[in-house]
Amino acid sequence: MGDSTIFSRSFSRHEHKLFCLIGCLIIALCTVIRHYDNPLSAFSLRSSIGHGLRMLMTTEEKHNAQKSYRIIKKSKPMCNVSERRSDICTMIGDIRIHGNSSTIFVASSQNNSWGIRPYARKGDENAMKNIRRFTVKTSKKMPQCMKNHTISAIVFSGGGYTGNNFHDFSDVVIPLFSTSREFNGEVRFLMSHKNSWWTENKFGKVLKGLSNYEVIDIDKEDQVHCFPKMVVGLKAHKELSIDPSASQHSMKDFREFLRKTYSLKRETAIKLREGEQKRPRILIITRKKTRTFVNEGEIANTTRSLGFEVIVTEADSRLSQFSQVVNSCDVMMGVHGAGLTNIVFLPENGILIQVVPLGNMEGIARVDFGEPAKSMKLRYLEYKISEGESTLMQQYPIDHPVFKDPASIRKKGWGPYGSVYLVKQSVKLDVVRFRGTLLEAFKLLHE
User: Fold this and answer.
1) Which of 236, 245, 240, 178 is nearest to 372 (CA)?
2) What is the enclosing helix (H) or strand (E) of 156?
3) Cα–Cα distance between 143 and 157 in angstroms, integer?
4) For the packed helices 296-305 and 431-444, what is the interaxial angle rounded to 10 degrees?
5) N or C of the chain: less Cβ packing under 10 Å?
6) CA distances from 72 to 46, 66, 423 (A)
């Protein structure tokens, strides 16, 4: 009787099968190890091995452990610089960032570098001139990791026009939603030009809804942070909008996110029926300094006489409170300006009435608010004021280029143009003329 037969009979049938299974696993593991140097093999294994490791490991962000895994040691940045609104680089592998020097290192056998300013208004020189430039370097030589992370990171800027409500949403918040939503909260935000009031007060709830972790002020970080994946820049498509053909998400998704974040109750605007005594609610957005309604009291009284419940107020940066006010309304109206950005909180099928000042602003008005309103499933009405409704009539003669040739003022640059039409101009609505627009809004609420 041979040694192998004696060995086999010394175990039960069940134990024999167990040894066979273990042997098969060892053979499979050896095969993996033999082919691990092949980058394609490593890449194909990354997903399954990474998932298993994530299940077994306790992440640094949640439990302050100082371990991370990197299956892929070399990676080539995938940078898209062809988009009109923003440049964006996506990197997977061994990614290390030294914030204080604005340098991102990517493990690679080749030495290359790219420069990127992570703010979604790249064609605007005035906005981009103060945005911090990050250098993405591929190199064999990598700085030593000081803080390891097992989740992905997104690098973006809070500079540029941030602080203006329209630009807060159009340049940062909506693009950040589009870029980060796929991570389902398991992502770190590395913010350049970080402003504590912006991140903690105004948009604190939004940021917490998109990420499970505190925002890192990357400009001040002198330690090297290491990540398995990093996105530099934000996905941006159009003003105050998401292009669903270029994104996994839409403005409907974004507005649902806002409703959840701010606990907004109303999904749809009122639908009026004949014989009912319900009064739709209209919010008149006022302004204190520029593009004000000179006769807001008269406007409110006319609107009320047509059957609306009227709220007159200035837009408020305390979004937790003001979002509730907007969401309680069916119609919102105001002169072209950042306050109209709050249409993001209006219920679906609500109505925006944009009052367009003099200065050939129809194009800007439609791009900034008209088209976005439609992408949000809102109805849009536009009221273009006449010369007699502009306070510029008290400042310039009627034959001045300000009235006769606004294009010539625009050619002088945005500064002179904005000074005249956005700063010096206020509006005294002709309530008789404006009455027709209000009646049209009332009619739309019956449809």
Assistant:
1) 240
2) strand 152-157
3) 24
4) 40
5) N
6) 8, 19, 55
The angle subtended at Cα 391 by Cα 387 and Cα 395, nearest 5°, is: 100
Q: What is the identity of the amino acid at 32?
A: V
Tokens 């420069």 belong to 115
- What does the block give as tokens for 439? 């009646």
Q: Which helix (H) or strand (E) holds 439?
A: helix 431-444
Q: Is 91 helix (H, G, I), strand (E, B) or coil?
A: strand
- Closest Cα to residue 210, out of 276, 279, 151? 151
Fill in the DSSP letter of residue 53. Answer: H
Helix residue spans in 60-216 (DSSP H): 60-63, 125-128, 165-167, 174-180, 196, 204-210
In degrees, to the nearest 5, what angle opens at C-alpha 104 toward C-alphas 100 and 107? 140
Q: What separation in angstroms does the CA of 326 have from each of 60, 269, 302, 334?
A: 40, 11, 21, 13
Task: Indicate if the alpha-carbon torsion angle 205, 207, 208, 213 is positive or negative.
Answer: negative
Structure tokens, 145: 């990791």
| Alpha-carbon separation of residue 290 from 287, 313, 391, 395 (angstroms) | 6, 15, 11, 15
Q: Are the C-beta atoms of 138 and 110 separated by less than 8 Å?
A: yes
Query: Rg of the Cα trace of the chain?
Result: 29
Tens digit of pLDDT per residue, the chain (447 long)?
444 333 333 344 444 444 444 454 444 444 444 443 433 333 333 333 333 333 333 344 444 333 333 333 455 568 888 899 999 999 999 999 999 999 999 999 888 888 999 999 999 999 999 999 999 999 999 999 999 999 999 999 999 999 999 999 999 999 999 999 999 999 999 999 999 999 999 999 999 999 999 999 999 999 999 999 999 999 998 999 999 888 999 999 999 999 999 999 999 999 999 878 899 999 999 999 999 999 999 999 999 999 999 999 999 999 999 999 999 999 999 999 999 999 999 999 999 999 999 999 999 999 999 999 999 999 999 999 999 999 999 999 999 999 999 999 999 999 999 999 999 999 999 999 999 999 999 999 998
- Cα separation of 240 and 292, whole Å? 23
